[in-house]
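Hi C.,

You asked whether I'd gotten around to modeling the 337-residue construct. I have! Everything is below, sequence then structure, no commentary in between.
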Amino acid sequence: MFKIACYGVRPNEVPFFQSLNKYNYELTLVEELLTHQNIQTAQHHDAVLLRGNCIADRQNLSKMAEYGIKYVFTRTVGFNHIDLEAAAEYKMEVARVPSYSPNAIAELSLTLAMMLLRNTAYTTNRTSFKNFIVDSQMFSREIRNCTVGVIGTGKIGLTEAKLFKGLGAKVIGYDVFESDAAKEVLEFKSLDALLAESDIVSIHVPYFPGKNDKMINAEFLSKMKEDAILINTARGELQDNEAILEALETNQIGAFGTDVFANEKDLFFKKFSPWQALPDPTVQKLVDLYPRVLVTPHIGSNTDEALANMVETSFENFNDILTTGKTANAVELPVLA
């Protein structure tokens, strides 16, 4: 029987792994992410199935090679947590999940934006301390009187655009590829025009290392409205945290919601004591700006539909490669000299 060690499987996810296991793989479901400390749990398996922030660097892949593991698959779109050069060297197969429910991310983006627009986090925080006085901070615009700018109008961005349009907002977009499907929902603008006109700016672009690192920088932020809301549920590497912090502190923008940070493995999925400083002092200052800044710990894909998509596709990836020797979702490995 084909044995797979699955990492980062939360308790609520266990029934999904079990019910969707139509190929009857022998699954070892490990709640912890894969680390250098627990790599030995991969022994006696044929494959591993990772999630984001699992450590699949050369050190761990070397151990997997010793264990005879040939398949290093991830149930995520991104695969930068896997050392592809080392995988090629050890003649391993790598595959990913290229897409899953776009509604999962789009709904979170909309939720963060609406919470900041309607000041619900601010208000419910006050009422949790038995303060029921209505103050000026609780006054807000209606979304139908706002313009939402979506940067990146692929499946996720387009889904969010439809959601906002359904609420009555004017939706504009920016993308290097202006699809006909998106044109039916929104009006494309130049990036500068979008930033100047939008009350809410939502990011849904892929991250290309070395090409669009920190695209949300001081120049980008200076072009936004002073009371605009910025939302990033794409990738943490796209945002310059220091520039965003300064923009908030100087009231250059109104509010910020994010589900992502660069180097988030040092922060997310960990519990810090109230008096313990976070590893990154800039992130600490951003968190301290709550409820003007809302942070969720990379939960965009943490929905029933998205999880089912990830698990089903992962199991299909394994079946494809075992029965045909290849999978359409394989990650191309570098050619070694």
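If it helps when you're writing up: The two ends are 35 Å apart (CA to CA).

Thanks,
B.
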